[in-house]
Structure formats: C-alpha cells, structure tokens
Amino acid sequence: MSAATHSSRPLSVRVSREKECADNSMVEPMSPTGRVMEELGVCIVVVIGLGTPVNLPVFRAGIETELLTRFPRFRSIQVMDESTNNGKPRWVQTPVNMDDHIVVPRLDPEAVASDPEKAVEDYVASLSLLPMDRRRPLWELHFLDFPSSEAASTVVLRLHHSIGDGTSITTLLMASSRSTADPARVPAMPPPPKRTGAIYQREPRPPLSSGDYLALLAWFWSYVVLAWHTLVDVAMIVATILFLSDPRTLFTRADGVEPRARKRFVHRSLSFDDVKLIKTAMNCTINDVLAGVTSAALSQYYFKKSGDTNMKRICLRSLVLVDARPVSTRQTYVTRVETGNRLSSLICPFNIALQDDPLEYVREAKRFMHRKKSSLEVLFTRVVGEFLVKKFGVKVYFLLLLYFITSSQ
To answer: Where does the O-acyltransferase WSD1 C-terminal domain lie (predicted)?
Structure first.
C-alpha cells in the first residue's frame, strides 16, 4: 500500500502583517472550536460508494470548479499571527496543487481480489492514523478503483475537522454534486424539517387574546422545565469534573494507557429504509434509532466479550457532539454553505443491558434525547468552551476537556 507522503509533525508557519495579502478576504480568523480541533488533530473521513468505476478527469474538473472556487477553506492553510502576543491562528489562502490532494493508492492485487471489503476497510483505517501535511490545504481525496459488494468503486474524503463539522461538510458535498443526466441540475433535497430552530427552542407563546389559559400555562411550564433540566445538567458536569465517575468496564481505558493510543475503526452498513421504517413506527428521529442500535450492539458485545452473567443494567455516560446550528430549510444550500465548526456536546446516559424487546433500546434513546432537548446544556457547554479558548487559550481548554473525559471513566 502506498499513499501520499505526510509530515509527521505539524508545520509551524508564521506570517506578519507586512506579509499579509492586501485583500482582507484572503485572511480569516480561526474560530475557537476550530482551534480546539487543530489542537486535537481530529480528521473527518468520509467513505463514498460509487455506482460506476472512478472517472478521475471528471472528479478533478469538479473539484477545481466547485470545491476550490466556491469554498475558500479548501484553498487555505493555517498560519499564526505574529502581530499578537499569543499568536492566534488564521486561515490564509494559498495556491493549490491538485496532485498533492488526489491520491490513487497501489494496493496488493491479491488482497483486493480475495476480500475487497477488507481492503477498503484496512485502507480507511490506515488514513485515521496518518497526520496531515500542514504546508498545504488540509484535505485529500483517495480513489479506490475496484468493485466491492457495496459499490463499483470507492472515494474516500479525508479532511481536517477545523475546516468544518459534519453538517457543513455534508451540505458542501451536496452543493458540489450534479446529476449525471443533467450536469446543470443540482440534487433534490428532502422536504423542510419540522424543527427550524435550536434543539432547545420552545414553542411560541400562544396569543393572549386567544383566552386558552391551559395553553399559556403549558407554555410557561415548558420554560420552568427547561430551567430545571439546565440546572441539573450543569450540576452533573461540575460533579463529573470533581468526583463523579462511571463504573469500570471493558470499554474503560486501562490505567497507564495513553489517551491517544491507536484504535481501529470499523464500520457496518445499515439499510436506511429500515432505519426510516423504525423511525416512523416509533415516532422518533433517525438519531434516536441509531443511538438505540449502537446501545444494542455494545450491550451484545459487552456480555459476549466479558462473559458476565450478571444481567443488571450498567449505566455509562457518553459525550455526544451536537451541531449548534439552527436547522434551516436546506433549500439555500446551493448559494449558502457555512463552513467551520459550530459544535457543542451533551452528556447522555448509555445503558448496557440485555433487553427482551430489541426496540426497547430505541425507546430508551428516544427518552433521554427528548430530555436533553429540554435543556440549555448544549448552549452552556458551547459558550463556556468558547470563553475558555478566547480568554485562556486552547491548551487550557484541552487540558480541562481531557481531565473531564478521564474523570468520567
């Protein structure tokens, strides 16, 4: 297997104001969340299955026309501002050499022929362990031009998380794709979602002239519940930092093991139609179904791997990343694609148990996610995180986050 050469250490690049571009649009400050992602070195790996063999010239032309032209982050590098005392990072646009970002690896033909799915999985897993070269824009496209059971060929996009979060990258990919039958036509988007605001947004107040006092009381009570749940969640965060921890299980990091120890990432494909069927039947969200499926899978894995015959419920907690953007109608994605990160986090209970009814995992996920939607925890963690990064620097925030994660184990 061979791939592009990567720098083993981030390249420290500094520019002064005298060396800046005259056009201020060429320079963009990095957001606090982006600075945290830069410190953590987190990358997003997107695996896309194609129905036809790879047409490299078409992909290259599309990348140059769409990604590089419309989205400045894909032609920018991270630099440090010497004019400030603490050297805050910024995005500065730079010329792009497409050959540095398009990778066609040479894999073992025998391994590909014997098990193409494993060849794809091994290659994707290897990408999660490689650092990115900071001397050029932090994205790559890897083309695996051989058939597997799920696709005729595979494209793997790897980019640094500081460029954007999952929502912005998904929207970006949709905005950059075109119909094969009509190259001028953009893909159709699903109908607008029911919710258009933040996850904690309450229903609008009923008009006072309506005389519906029960509706007014329910509206007022929703804010009382919101305040109470927020108070409880903030107290749980403080308690976790100070003393509260989860029981030790085989999912807990062993003592003496580095937090960044290498781990292998594997995937499993699910039928989206099946997920939507469960979503509709149980009146929940797709995320609720996926959280329930994950809880079921980890529960089965735990009792099988540990050999534990004690079937009591084990209550763990998970740190779930949440996009803090209000949900839009998604119909403006062609002209408005917001790059960058607007992430926050939630502490969610994650029960390890063997249920007689598999759908009980989904019901539990629906209950706790509904509970989290009636709390300002996601807003609290985002505001506090940005305050710490701006006032004390990303290293202080990173040390606090690392302590928070390890203290909960």
So the answer is: 340-400
- 359-372 vs 286-306: helix crossing angle, rounded to 10: 120
Higher pLDDT, 190 or 127: 127
Comparing CA positions, the residue from 38, 31, 63, 47 lying closest to residue 266 is 47
Sign of CA dihedral 281, 287, 290, 291: negative
Please state, in angstroms and as integers, the Cα–Cα distance from residue 407 to each residue in 85, 131, 242, 320, following that order.
33, 28, 8, 16
pLDDT of residue 2: 33
Task: Give the mean pLDDT of the chain.
Answer: 78
Please give the Cα distance from 143 to 47 (Å, whole number): 10
Distance CA 89, CA 93 (A): 13
Nearest residue to 168 via CA among 46, 318, 51, 69: 46
Beta bridge partners of 46: 157
Q: What is the pLDDT of residue 66?
A: 80
* 160 vs 27, residue with greater confidence: 160
How far, in Å, CA of 323 to CA of 165, rounded? 8
Which one is catalytic: 101, 160, 161, 229? 161
Contact in structure between 354 and 306 (CB atoms under 8 Å) = no
DSSP E strands, 293-339: 314-323
Q: How far apart are CA 233 and CA 347, in angstroms?
A: 8
Residue 1 has pLDDT above 70, yes or no: no
SS3 per residue for 45-56 = EEEEEECCCCCH
Q: Are 329 and 196 contacting, i.e. CB atoms less than 8 angstroms apart?
A: yes
Upper half-sphere CA count for residue 172 (Cβ side, 13 Å): 24
In 10 A of CB 161, how many CB atoms? 21
Give the pair of three-digit tokens for residue 220. 């007022």
Q: Is 161 one of the annotated active-site residues of the chain?
A: yes
pLDDT in tens, 249-280: 777 665 555 555 555 666 677 888 999 999 99
